[in-house]
Amino acid sequence: VPRARGAASKPVIAVIGAGAVGCYYGGRLAQHGFPVHFLFRSGYSNAVSRGLVVKSVRGDFKIPPSRLLAHRSTRTMPKADLVVVTLKTTANDQYKSLIQPLLKSTSIIVTLQNGLGNEEHLAKLFGKDRVVGGLAFTCIYRLNNGTIQHLDYGQIHLGEFSGKQRERTARIAAMFSSSNIDCKVVDDLRYARWEKLVWNIPFNGLGAVLDKTTDKLIATEVGSGLVNRLMLEVMRVAKSLGIHFPANMADKKIAGTRSMGAYQTSMQIDRRAGRPLESRALLYEPLKIARLKKVAVPCLEMLYAMSVLP
Amino acid sequence: VPRARGAASKPVIAVIGAGAVGCYYGGRLAQHGFPVHFLFRSGYSNAVSRGLVVKSVRGDFKIPPSRLLAHRSTRTMPKADLVVVTLKTTANDQYKSLIQPLLKSTSIIVTLQNGLGNEEHLAKLFGKDRVVGGLAFTCIYRLNNGTIQHLDYGQIHLGEFSGKQRERTARIAAMFSSSNIDCKVVDDLRYARWEKLVWNIPFNGLGAVLDKTTDKLIATEVGSGLVNRLMLEVMRVAKSLGIHFPANMADKKIAGTRSMGAYQTSMQIDRRAGRPLESRALLYEPLKIARLKKVAVPCLEMLYAMSVLP
Fold first, then answer.
1. Nearest CA to A136 among A76, A65, A215, A196?
2. Cα–Cα distance between B91 and B115 in angstroms, integer?
3. Given this model, what pLDDT does residue A46 score?
4. pTM of the full predicted structure?
5. Please, what's the b/e burial string for A274-298 (b: 16 or more CB within 10 A of its CB; e: otherwise)?
6. How far out from the chain centre does Cα A300 lie?
7. What are the residue ranges of helices labelled H in chain A?
8. CA–CA separation, B239 vs B69, rounded Å?
9. pLDDT above 70: residue B7
């Protein structure tokens, strides 16, 4: 494995799950001089032959093979100061085997995964003090040749899982910010998580089960009405947890989605590729909370059921 | 147009919309000596070259081209004693132009179409006394070469739209019965219509929007739970109209569906063929009644919305 330039005194970063999100954010950090080790699976051979190739609304960049710290196994990776988890949540049963080998006593784990339950799962395995939750608000995907297409947005929200404010979160955010990543620390990680779910549940869920891009889902009044109903259900579940969103948030999110055009959500891409869907983290975990809190969510119930049909 | 043998004193029958259902039932009547005129659209050239070829669980049969009264336009068709309407409901805007030319003062119209609202529409155009409602409980489709595949079931329920019992209904039923069609007269057409909707709404609706055969929809507990929920919603709407079904009907229908194997509903076939879906008659008309009667049908609302997305 080659060494990154001028990385001696910088924190060692491990990106676990070098898909579109992992390659993009890890790539930005590597572009700005951080020693970032990437754990690839399907993208490994492209990575070693082409390096990281990123087309981004915030500026294209490349990490050439000679500077890319690409791995196929955690066994070749060093202990990390910061483990950035960007696995599909469908691979969360591999948390232990993939992350444990990278940890030293001071390692911090940041998850940028979708949906609910990831921080809880990591905290249970590795201790809650290590865990920082993150959300990546981004339109991004990876082409078959490995090129990352970053179409829109890109902000990261970071928050301590424990809820205690800590100086380290600001340090991680500063590291991201200095690497051309729009990043902010949030007091209430749950607010950010549920806000993202308000968008993800209708667009990823319906997009996957119906195989439709976001523009088709909201092209008609009936369609945007359905998306709106799902959003309001999710907002009601959040409210039962004490998380209050502005009443017009659903409308605003739908309006904002129009500028994305014919966007394929990650879950629709997974469906088309025949990969397992992130139904558990994105739909079932929120549904479990709705049931527990006795919030009626008939559309979410139906969406989840449709997402797990054989 | 050739003449049917020995058909001089028999009622003249016109089948409007010679798709799978029209070809099968019209074909049975023709097989048993009735003069049946078929209005074809896409199937016309197959019909004149191959005749009607039917593979059926009740016995295969053929009507050779020399005996098949195949038409491409109502202009070549005689006035009919009985007009059997088997159009897709998506073509109901053509009722007037297709049926009017065939009517004399005594003509009776039997619709075997899916969903709700067809009898009402026919009654409005041609007078309610002409209209007999019919339901075809059958698993049937047409292959590309025109062969009709009749896989299972096949019973017809007939009932007067006006609700008044009449001798003519029994005569039509007897005509069907003498032609190897299992047919019964029902006192309450609405009961039969809604009973069919209880099956059609989940299986046609979900089958089409998710592109799944019936077996996949009920292969898991989550899936049969969803089908069951939709069925119960439809049963509640029926109840608001005074139509009471046995409480275990949903479970029985789901159990009965298992024997059909990997069945593609007509609406799933339409979706795959890129044809318009029968969303209005099958989903929207029942939904309108639910809204009018203030019966909560969140799953039906969602299903309808999904079925009309672009």
1. A196
2. 13
3. 95
4. 0.87
5. eeebbbbbbbbbbbebbeeeebebb
6. 21
7. 20-31, 44-50, 95-99, 118-126, 167-177, 189-200, 207-210, 214-217, 221-240, 249-258, 266-272, 279, 285-292, 298-307
8. 43
9. no
Q: Is B40 left (phi over 0), alpha (psi -120 to 50) or beta?
A: beta
Of A202, A155, A207, A162, give the one whose Cα is nearest residue A182.
A155
- Among the partner-chain residues B299, B304, B310, the one whose CB lies closest to the CB of A302 is B299
Q: Please measure the distance between the N-terminal and C-terminal CA atoms of chain A and give it in whole angstroms.
A: 41
CA distance B121 to B98: 14
Cross-strand pairs, B52: B63
pLDDT class for B8, splitting at 50, 70, 90?
Answer: low
- Reduced to 3 states (helix: H, G, I; strand: E, B; else coil), residue A297 is coil
Residue of A nearest to B216 (CA): A310
For residue B292 the two structure tokens come to 């009018």
User: Do strands B131-142 and B148-160 pair parallel, antiparallel, or not at all (unpaired)?
Assistant: antiparallel
Q: Are A41 and A30 in contact (CB under 8 A)?
A: no
Partner residues linked to A111 by β-bridges: A85, A133
Calculate the CA dihedral of residues B253, B110, B9, B44 and round it to 10 degrees.
Answer: -90
B152 Rama sector, left if φ>0, alpha if ψ -120 to 50, beta otherwise: beta
When the pLDDT of each residue in chain A is averaged and rounded to a whole number, the result is 95
pLDDT at A5: 52
- What are the residues facing B153 on neighbouring strands? B138
Distance CA(A45)–CA(A42), nearest Å, equals 8
Asked whether the beta carbons of residue B210 and residue A206 sit closer than 8 angstroms, the reply is: no
Facing B222 at nearest CB: one of A217, A222, A305: A305
Contacting residues of B for A209, CB less than 8 Å apart? 209-210
B277 has a chain A CB within 8 A of its CB? no
